[in-house]
Write a structure and sequence with these properties.
The chain is 56% helix and 8% strand. It contains 26 helices and eight strands. The protein has helices spanning 19-23, 42-57, 84-100, 105-109, 126-137, 141-146, 154-170, 175-188, 199-210, 218-229, 234-251, 253-269, 280-312, 321-331, 340-349, 354-372, 381-390, 395-398, 408-419, 429-439, 464-469, 473-480, 491-497, 502-509, 519-522, 532-549, and strands at residues 12-18, 29-30, 63-72, 78-82, 122-123, 189-196, 453-456, 486-489. β3 and β4 form a beta hairpin. The longest helix has 33 residues, at 280-312. It is globular and about 80 Å long.
Length: 553
C-alpha cells in the first residue's frame, strides 16, 4: 500500500496570521454560547500592554500572541473555541485608539466592523453582544462606557475595567507615538490560527494543546543543545546534567522554566523574549557572555540557588533575615514578576552587607508594588527594572532616583492606588489586602494559596437591617470597597456568613472553631459597632500602616 505524505490532516488547517489578517477577513468571528464570558482582569490587560509596548520599543519584527482555535459553522461565520479573551481585548485596544486618533479612525474601525458598520467582526456571547457593540464597537461608545453609572454584570464590568486599563497605560503617549504603536500592533501581533471544520475537531485540538502529554519544553531542548556544545567530557556532561535536573527538582518544572526562559535572559541582556518558548535570545546571550560550559556549571546553579531562596523565603541576611524574608514572601504574591530578575541577580552576585540587603528589598518591594498597581508608566516599567541590573553594585545609583527610589509622581500615584476603593473584580484587591495584613503588628505574611478570602463587613448586598443602618446608596458605595471595611477569613466561613448583622459576623470571626484568625480580623476585635466613621477611620489607619511599612511616609 502506498501512502502520500505532506499536508495537514483532513478537516484541519493552520496558518500564521497577524492582527490585520485575523480581523480583516471576510468571515465574522463569534463567541459561542458554551464559552465562558470575558474574564480578564486589569492585571492581564496591563500585562499584555506592557509586552506589546516593550516589543514596539525594541522594534521587534513580530510579537507572538499564541494560538487561536476557530471552528467553521454552517452559518458562514467562525466560532472562537480558544482565544476569546485576547481577541476581545485587542478589539477594545483598537477601539480606544480609534476614538483617540481621528486620522486613523476609519482604518481601525474597518478592523472592528464590516463595511456596512452594522456587523461586528467579533461577536461576544448573546448576554454581552449588544453591550460590546454599543459601548466598544460603535465609535464614541467608550466615552459612554466610562461614564456609565448603571449596574453591570461581572463580565461587563471587567470590559469597562479593561478599557480603563488601556486608557491608563496608553494615555501618556503622544499622538505620533500612539499611531506608530497601533500600526506595529496591527502588523506585528502574530497568532497561530488553527481552523477545524467542525466543533468536534476543535474540542480535540484544544485539550491536546493545553492538557495532554508532556512534550519536550524549551528548556529541555536547550539543555540538550548546551550539553552537546559545552566541550565537557563524558563525566562533566553527566555532572552538569545532574546539576540541571537537581535544580529543576528543587524549583519544580514551572519555576525552573521561568528561571531559564525569563529570568536569566533578562539578567544577561535586559530584554524580554519575543514570545513564549522563544529561547533564541538566551542562546545568543550564552554564546556572547558565558559560553555553554560556564552557563551550565556556574551561572545556572548560582542563579537557581538564589531563586530557591526567594521562593522558599530563606534569604540569608544575618540579623535582618526575618525582616528580609517577610518582604520577599510579600513580593512573591505579585503576579507581576518584573522585579524577580533583579532580586535573583542581587542575591547571586551583589549580596553585600545584611543591612544593604534589607535596604534593597525594602526599596524593591515599594517599586514592585507600584508597578503592579500601575503607579509606574506602562511603557517604562521594563526599562526601569532592567536598569536595576546595571547598578546592583553601585549604592549611589541603585538607591537613587530612576532606579529603586520612586519619583515624587510615582510615590503619590502609589499612595493614591493603595488609598482607592478596591472592587471585587479588580485582581489587585486581594494582593493589597494581604500586604496590609502583613504590615500590621504580628501580621501574618500570607500567600495567594492560603485560605484567606476578603470579607466585606458592610456587605456588598445588604439586607434590610444593614440598609436601615446605611440607608444612603452613595455612602454604601463609598465605604463598601475601602480597606477599612475588609477582614480576612476562610472561604468556607465567608460563604457561610453572608450579609448577617455585625454582631453575628463578629461571633463567627472570633469563634474558637479551629479556623485561623488573621491580623486584619483581629484588628477589629474591640470594635463594638460598625459605622461609617469607624470604616473611614480604620481605612486611613490601614493605608498609613502599609505606607509606613513600605517607607512611603
Amino acid at each position: 500500500m502506498n501512502f502520500s505524505a505532506g499536508g495537514l490532516p483532513l478537516g484541519l488547517t493552520a496558518q500564521i496570521a497577524n492582527l490585520a489578517a485575523l480581523f480583516g477577513g471576510a468571515v465574522a468571528l463569534r463567541i459561542p454560547a458554551y464559552q465562558r464570558p470575558y474574564t480578564w482582569t486589569p492585571v492581564e490587560v496591563a500585562a499584555l500592554l506592557v509586552d506589546l509596548l516593550s516589543a514596539f520599543e525594541r522594534r521587534a519584527p513580530y510579537y507572538f500572541i499564541g494560538h487561536i482555535v476557530l471552528v467553521k459553522t454552517d452559518r458562514g461565520d467562525m466560532e472562537v473555541a480558544d482565544g476569546q479573551q485576547r481577541l476581545a481585548t485587542f478589539t477594545m485596544l483598537l477601539a480606544w485608539v480609534r476614538d483617540r486618533l481621528v486620522a486613523r479612525s476609519d482604518a481601525l474601525q474597518d478592523l472592528i466592523v464590516f463595511d456596512d458598520s452594522a456587523r461586528p467582526r467579533l461577536r461576544l456571547r448573546k448576554a454581552d453582544e449588544r453591550f460590546f457593540l454599543e459601548f466598544v464597537q460603535v465609535p464614541g461608545g467608550l466615552t459612554r462606557l466610562l461614564n456609565r453609572g448603571e449596574a453591570w454584570s461581572d463580565s461587563q464590568l471587567l470590559i469597562a475595567q479593561a478599557v480603563e486599563t488601556i486608557e491608563e497605560n496608553l494615555n501618556g503617549l503622544n499622538d505620533d507615538t500612539l499611531d506608530a504603536f497601533i500600526r506595529f500592533v496591527v502588523r506585528c501581533a502574530t497568532f497561530d490560527v488553527m481552523t477545524a471544520d467542525e466543533r468536534g475537531g476543535a474540542a480535540t485540538i484544544f485539550p491536546t494543546m493545553n492538557n495532554r502529554g508532556r512534550s519536550l519544553s524549551g528548556p529541555d531542548i536547550l539543555k540538550q543543545e548546551l550539553l552537546e556544545s559545552s566541550g565537557l567530557d563524558d563525566a562533566g556532561v553527566d555532572e552538569a546534567a545532574l546539576l540541571w535536573e537537581g535544580l529543576e527538582d528543587r524549583l519544580g518544572r514551572n519555576a525552573f522554566a521561568q528561571l531559564v526562559s525569563e529570568i536569566i535572559p533578562v539578567i544577561y541582556t535586559g530584554e524580554l523574549l519575543r514570545g513564549p518558548g522563544d529561547l533564541t535570545l538566551l542562546r545568543n546571550a550564552i554564546q556572547r557572555r558565558a559560553e555553554p560550559k560556564a552557563f551550565l556549571t556556574e551561572d545556572l546553579p548560582r542563579y537557581g540557588a538564589a531563586l530557591v531562596e526567594l521562593r522558599t523565603g530563606t534569604v540569608k541576611a544575618g540579623v535582618h533575615s526575618r525582616e528580609v524574608n517577610r518582604r520577599v514572601k510579600r513580593l512573591m504574591t505579585l503576579p507581576d514578576t518584573l522585579w524577580l530578575p533583579a532580586a535573583v541577580a542581587y542575591l547571586a552576585d551583589h549580596r553585600g552587607t545584611t543591612a544593604r540587603t534589607l535596604k534593597f528589598f525594602k526599596g524593591l518591594e515599594a517599586l514592585a508594588l507600584a508597578s503592579f498597581l500601575n503607579a509606574l508608566r506602562a511603557d517604562r516599567k521594563e526599562g526601569r527594572f532592567a536598569r536595576l541590573l546595571k547598578v546592583l553594585g553601585d549604592d549611589a545609583k541603585l538607591f537613587g532616583p530612576s532606579h529603586l527610589a520612586l519619583s515624587p509622581t510615582e510615590h503619590d500615584a502609589l499612595l493614591s492606588r493603595i488609598n482607592k476603593q478596591h472592587g471585587r473584580e479588580n485582581g489587585q484587591r486581594r494582593v493589597v489586602v494581604l500586604w496590609v495584613n502583613a504590615a500590621l503588628p504580628d501580621g501574618e505574611v500570607l500567600s495567594l494559596d492560603d485560605d484567606a478570602s476578603v470579607e466585606h463587613v458592610l456587605p456588598t448586598s445588604p439586607n434590610a437591617e444593614w440598609l436601615k443602618r446605611f440607608p444612603s446608596k452613595e455612602v454604601r458605595r463609598e465605604l463598601c470597597n475601602l480597606l477599612g471595611n475588609f477582614v480576612l477569613i476562610t472561604a468556607a466561613k465567608n460563604n457561610r456568613i453572608g450579609n448577617r448583622a455585625f454582631s453575628e459576623k463578629t461571633r463567627e470571626y472570633f469563634a474558637q472553631d479551629g479556623d485561623p484568625i488573621y491580623a486584619l480580623t483581629r484588628d477589629i476585635a474591640r470594635v463594638d459597632d460598625w459605622t461609617a466613621d469607624v470604616i473611614r477611620a480604620r481605612h486611613e489607619r490601614l493605608v498609613h500602616t502599609l505606607a509606613e511599612d513600605l517607607g512611603l511616609i
